[in-house]
Amino acid sequence: MREGILSGNAVALIVAGAVLASGSQALAQATPAKREAPIELKADASPRPWKRYPGWPARDYSKYNTLANLATPPAPKEPRKLTGPITGDAKKGAELVADRARGGSCLACHVMGPAGGANLPGNVAPDLSEIGNAGREDEWLFNYVYDARVYNPETVMPPWGSHGFFDEAEINDIVAFLKTLKSPAVFKTELDNPEKRPVPVEKRDNLDPIENPAMWAVEKAEALFKQRTASGFACATCHNDPKTQFKTWAAAMPKWEPRLNKVLGVEEFITRHAKATTGADWMMETDDNRAMSVYLHFLANGEPIKVDTASAEAKAAIARGVELSKRKVGQLNMACTDCHGIAANKWIRGQWLGEPKGQYDHFPTWRTNLLAIWDIRQRFQWCQVNIRADELPPDAKEYGDLEFYLATQNEGLKLSVPGIRH
Amino acid sequence: MRQLSRRAALLLGASGAALTIAGWNSDAFAAAKDAADDIAKFTGGKTAEKGKVSIELPEIAENGNTVPLSIAVDSPMTADNYVTDVLVVADGNPRPGVATFHFSPLSGKAEASTRIRLATTQNIIAVAKTSKGEFFTAQKLVKVTIGGCGG
Q1: Rounded Cα–Cα distance for residues B119 and B15 (Å)
Q2: CATH number of A90-192
Q3: Is the bond preceding A49 in cis, omega lying within 30 degrees of 0?
Q4: Cβ distance of A368 and B63 shorter than 8 Å
């Protein structure tokens, strides 16, 4: 297919390139389908089987839902009956609730009196510092920790017992600890109190090349853009004025792509378009692909995000994205909306949870704690692994639907890429 | 997890070297003592007076890798009264020494900004020395945050 295009009519290719780059919807609609940007239609845009990044948790979450697959065992219908009063070890319980290796620790969401030294607890969920005065029965406390879905099917609380984070003896210890909590938490500093902690403000100039190391990607991509492949073609062969031609393009992505029957984001488009034109091998989540994505977004900086939601297919894709954002996935049994909807604008431990608006306009972004550029699909993957669900390959159609929905939530925000985040 | 760029490789290499040296005394107590020693050496044993120095740092650092720091000293910066040096130490880092900034009357202002690396929640202490042999100091606690998702 690539051979055909490249050895065929070079003039047609140049015209196709110009139409693509113009970003003009009217022009695109007025032109026949044969002038659409050529894209690779068969091969995947990332390796199969997808292999998790080395250094990410290697655990296998295949027993639980992913965004592509339903596997989570059904929730229990009834609370477990206890044979007698709880006789756990409160001291052990105090350690367990603060153990970050067990799915993040209870302190991620709850203030719990002195547990963990009251060091930066979160406020996603109720303050439990006085739960010992609430007159709750042992069985209720046990089951709320074991699997709170028996009392509230929509709960954000992970099923700590059913999903194997803690065994029954450990939950007994946790309940014994909860029963000792009878007075308000005392914080060493105001910063430790999630109700008083100041919301983080991003003040760095992300487009300053000294401030943001990701700006190297713009230079790298400018060089890649002009670099001829074995085919003799470069991006610049057709796109001779990228600054003008791509002034708005990235702000209108992702889009519904009928030829692939899926939503295409900037990164997957780069892989498929390059493959079908110059033949460059720019698979998703490689340095070259990231650099090109940063560059194409960079050229559209300042442009408000506005995706094309007109077609029935686009509307259906966004509706699927909404549903996917609500799907409980992984061992922690959480949905996107649990953290970025119900718990948005609250603290999960010492981290501020943002709402969907503002989570898209700066991608790809520099991550200061990893010294790396991440595109939005890698961010999705990491979120999944963090809530202990198997991630999907970056070009999975489910991520396309989710990204499309996220873009609609960010409509009107002006692109500012590469961003800089922790 | 990381696609290593050349830049990242250099940075990781540099941090690796720093950690190797820091291996000698990595407990917090030793670090705090080292910080006090560094300050005593800088002031020649004099006690620095609180004030005149301001430190700008986030109260909560979302990660300790690159924490923006600005320091400013209130000084006329004239030939007969100016800030000569400002020492910055971090009392919880394996190696507490962060930087020493040098000024002259030609500097105009005694101000500097940089990015620093913080191993954990700790105090950042700045000590300014003037041409008249006075010492001023300020300190600020920075909490390096704890993530919600755990390991």
Answers
A1: 12
A2: 1.10.760.10
A3: yes
A4: yes
Domains, chain B, ranges and CATH? 28-144 (2.60.40.2470)
pTM greater than the 0.90 cutoff: no
Locate A33 and state its tokens.
Answer: 């389908």
Pairing verdict, β B60-61 and B135-144: parallel
Backbone angles phi, psi at B12, to 5 degrees: -65, -40
| Per-residue CA distances from B51 to A248, A250, B54, B55 (Å) | 51, 50, 8, 11
| Residue pair A345/A355 in contact by the 8 Å Cβ criterion | yes
Contacts of B91 (CB under 8 A, 6+ apart): B31, B32, B35, B36, B122, B123, B124, B125
* Rounded Cα distance, B105 and B7, in Å: 36
Domain segments of chain A as ranges: 1-72+207-422, 90-192
Exposed e or buried b per residue across B86-120, where buried means at least 16 C-beta atoms within 10 angstroms of its C-beta = bbbbbbbbbbbebeebebebebeebbbeeebebbe
Q: Is the pLDDT of residue B17 over 60?
A: no
User: Does B3 contact chain A (CB < 8 Å)?
Assistant: yes
The residue among A197, A203, A287, A371 with the most chain B CBs within 10 A of its CB, best to mutate, is A371
ipTM: 0.71
pLDDT, tens digit, 9 for 90 and up, residues A127-152: 999 999 999 999 999 999 999 999 99
In the block, tokens 């760095």 appear at A204
Whether the CB of A202 is below 8 Å from some CB of chain B: the reply is no
Are B82 and B105 in contact by the 8 Å Cβ rule? The answer is yes
E-strand ranges in A243-396 read: 255-257, 262-264, 347-348, 351-352, 365-367, 372-374
SS3 B138: strand
Q: Let me know: does A417 contact A298? Beta carbons within 8 Å.
A: yes
Mean pLDDT on A279-303: 98
CATH class of A1-72+207-422: mainly alpha
Q: In chain A, whose CA is at the least distance from the CA of B113?
A: A211
Shortest CB distance from A371 goes to which of B2, B59, B60? B2
